[in-house]
What does this fold into?
Amino acid sequence: MLRSVIGDIGHLAVITAFVAAAVATFGYFKSSSEKSLDTKSWKRFARIAFYIHGISILTAITVLYIIIGDHYYEYNYARSHSSDRLPLNYLAAALWEGQEGSFLLWMFWHVIIGFILIRIERKREAPVMSVFSLVQLILTSMIIGVAIFDVKIGSSPFILLREAMPNMPVFQLNPDYIPEDGAGLNPLLQNYWMVIHPPTLFLGFALVLVPFSYCVAGLRKKDYKGWLKPAMPWLLLAVLILGTGIIMGAYWAYETLNFGGYWNWDPVENAVLIPWLVLVAGLHTAILASSGKSGLRITYILIAASFTLILYSTFLTRSGILGDTSVHSFTDLGLSGQLLFFNIIILLLFIFLYLKRRKHIPVSGKELKINSKETLLFSGTTVLCLAAFQILVMTSVPVYNALAETFGLELNLAGPSDPPAFYGKFQLWFAVCIAVLSALGQVYWWKINKKRKLRDVITIPFIFSLLLSGLIIIFSGIRDFSYITLLVAAVFSVVVNTGTAWSLTRSDFKLSGGAVAHIGIALMLIGILFSSGYSKVISLNNSGLAILEDFTEDQNLENIVLHRHESVPIEGYELTYYGQFVRAKNFPGLVDKTELIGIPDPYKAVARRAITYQKEVRFEAGDTLEINPELLYFKVGFTKSNGKSFILFPKVHMNPGAEGIIASPALRMSIKGDLYAHVTGIPKVNEEKNWGETKTIHRQIGDTIIINDYIALLENIESVKDDPEVKLTQDEVLLRLVLRVKGKEQDFLLYPKLLLGKEGAWSIPEIREDLGMKVTLQHFNPQGEESPHVRLDINTAEKDWIVFKVIEKPFINILWIGTFLVIIGTGTAVVRRFKKRK
Amino acid sequence: MKTSHLLGIIIIAVAIGVIVATAGDASQYMTFEEAAELATDDPDTRVHVIGQLKKDAEGHIVGMDVSARTSFSFLMTDGDNETVKVIYNEPVPPDFERSEQLVINGKMRNNVFLADKILLKCPSKYEEEFKAEL
It folds into this structure.
């Protein structure tokens, strides 16, 4: 039975939310417009409308959660994003995997922040919330899913599958068709980062709206400066949360997604970095504006720009325009026109309002002195904006193509051929400027006054940082001029900001937030310099394959092939691949796949023998285990030249229904840096092995033979009653040969079997694809010459293998330490500003 | 000269520099023929080419060689219907065989394309499963 009621409830909730947002916008606007007389009652009216809007959004989210969680596969959203096997803790991730769900998540945060603002903001509630309600109105329109005169407005998450795909032949046969199972969540996204990263990022998006609403409110109410104080903590919080969201994404990409690094200058990554940089610039001018007279106009522009850029990034990632240039943008839902319209409307409204009010915004009138905190702050702001601008100009390439196309031109521009090199050559120098300016800015802000000159404060730290960076350069072997410049600048920034933070902490610890955050930024720059600038593939393979014969130059292949139990040397290590492992339900560790016997149900397997964890037996031989066959772990041993060794377990997601593998790296972290190892290729799962020619041998129990380079001992022959693979009837006898194959780390026991019944004998061969051997017990003679005698058929094939890549990321920890300092420093400032808000 | 004017001039100068550099570094989508012409002038210029995997009448991919494992080669047909052998210095990326469209980034050499990067466009998993179900 098709369950259409729940979707109707969801749809109704969205429509209610839309209408209520429209009413709230109108009410708040009325209440805050100058001509309106009865502002109090308008405000109360609008507030109720916003509450109704909020509750409707919460209802819509709950309904969508139920549709996904209870597997309502007749709905398109559940069919695309959920599945029966999806673990409960990833349901939330499935909720915001799709565009509609992520819009709901974004709106959810707006609702929560709106509720808080209504509670705490008494004076400016109406003008601030009018902007909030307007944005909510537009966002709700993205998921409303109605058509007016054939123009589709929004894409509803509550549509049925048959509405989404009416042309599917199955619906002609059976309009009430409900799929058995859903497509599920992309295995790469089944990860705790997918649960925490999007909410953080969207909270960041939502927080950017707060300073924007305040600044629009300031313009409308001609309260040109008064809004800065209440908006400041929100502005700082937006910088903190959005920044945390970005770095979380970077760490996720590094640790799980296997994009090879933490930042790849992908348009989707850039799209969020750009507004953040502008927002940070706006934060600095806002601090300047609230403490003096200059910087107010630019603050308006930067805050508005950061919000507009958030909308622009939404447009880039959701309109499908990035198609050819990005690996991970959303799929196109046909919302591009609507998104663009939204973008332009907000921008034009702001420009109109700003130009109308511009001449009333107070300016300092005094000329900037070259050595003043104002000049330093403006320079820093300028650098941040230029950095954002450089990324924006290139990231917008698809937009230029689309624009040219509307004018009938074919531009055919592609992104940079080598993004890190392209962005790096500018961003490196911007980073140098930011490091120096952030150090001097803090010094000027706190320490320079009429009595104390810059020279008095800066000389000793300057000499000290030169010495320190000199030592670092000598020991690390940095020789590149631009890298040396960045290193010196960053070390200088760390030293000076540490000095500032130290002296501030002694007077009032709460004031040191800025200095601590700036230390963090400088440390991040050092971390990025080493880990990216000196990232090195150490699994080089110089074997010169035939495939590359056409090329005269030397081609280093960055991947190597490891066969099971064979050691292969790479730079600094010797690698040994030991085999595949899986996770099993109710088992804390990993289970060696060779300990398991596969059965038709891929999600289950039978234990070949007792499976132990820390010497405690968890499963007996013959027990059925519930396993996850889609996630394979590969045990790889690393041995250093000094004999020390460790084991890594890089992962591979087997993508069901699709070719190929999705790898997740394993990291070995140390003070000197990370070793980043991942599996880049494995044998095809269903491919028939080439077992070669059969070799028949006659041996006695106790003999030793060589199979596929392994030494194997014919240990014993025994009769078994109980076998996990064979069910015996009364008059059958099962014999098995115990064949002990000597491995490098452990022995493997193979049991080729012979089933003796009334009608004759059957051989049940032991096939070990991992070892590349198939052993068949053809005949058994208990009266051999001296001891029992067997006849074995032996086939061999290539041993199991993996293709493997290992990268060194030196001193990457400095990047993460810096990140934490930025978060702690900014967090301290947020707390201080919230207390000072009134 | 006023400090703010100086700042303004610096901003404009850097902004122009950025735009010029972008215009210079943004590569263009090309055909194999154009890429080959470019390679004779400047062998190290890297270009983007859009195309599809070469398939036979039954839709099977032809000319793919994965025997080396750490790298592989395949045949790609560009928009002008020209087919060229492409070599990629990495193992086969996930979903490669399913791709509807490929964007390769690299350089042309002796009528062979050496790719540094491959970007795939695949039909959504969802649509395909649907086809399988029916």
